[in-house]
Amino acid sequence: MRFVFFLTLALRYTEAFASKEQLRELYWRATDDAAIKLFYQQAMAEPLSDAVVLAYQGVATAMQAQVADGISEKIRYFSEGKEKIAEAVSLDPNNPEIRFLRFSVQSEVPAILGYRDHISEDFEMMLYYFNTGQYVPSRGYCIRMRAFMLESEVLDDQQKSQLKKISIV
């Protein structure tokens, strides 16, 4: 009986891990309308298991605003996405993956939307995190995060210089 319980627990953990990995990959691939729609569909179909999944759902919802029809739909998706991201950050404020996801949305939205108030805070957390050498969820993901931040137009030269000095090994 114990074996069945632990086997079931292990399978659920494996499924949750695989699902997050899928969301992570879909996030990076969401660069055109079709990929954004797929990311949104997959994220919304994912059972809400923790703050990281909620953050991906928030990012996907905010990105869905890009492909939504009409201004009211765009505003609705963007607002819902912001709320989900904020909730994810409040549930796990020290999670660097969640903070990176918020950074990525805030750095990509037009400044006129007024959603850029945590860029410096999230940058500082990411800088600290990269310097610890603890690469969660993976080294490869952290390399992608840093590359994204280096390409961002919201960081100044000094901030980018700080990022370039960090070696993710």
Number of discrete domains: 2
Order of helices and strands: HHHHHHHH
Mean pLDDT: 89
Indicate the proportion of strand residues. under 5%
Into which percent range does the helicity of residues fall?
over 70%
> Number of helical runs?
8
Low-confidence parts = 2-18
Which class of secondary structure composition applies to the elements? mainly alpha
What characteristics describe this protein?
single chain, about 170 residues, mainly alpha, 2 domains, disordered N terminus
Describe this structure in words.
- The structure is a single chain.
- The protein has two domains: 92 residues; 76 residues, no CATH class.
- It contains eight helices and no strands.
- The chain has 169 residues and is mostly helical.
- It is globular and about 45 Å long.
- It starts with a helix and ends in a 5-residue tail after the last helix.
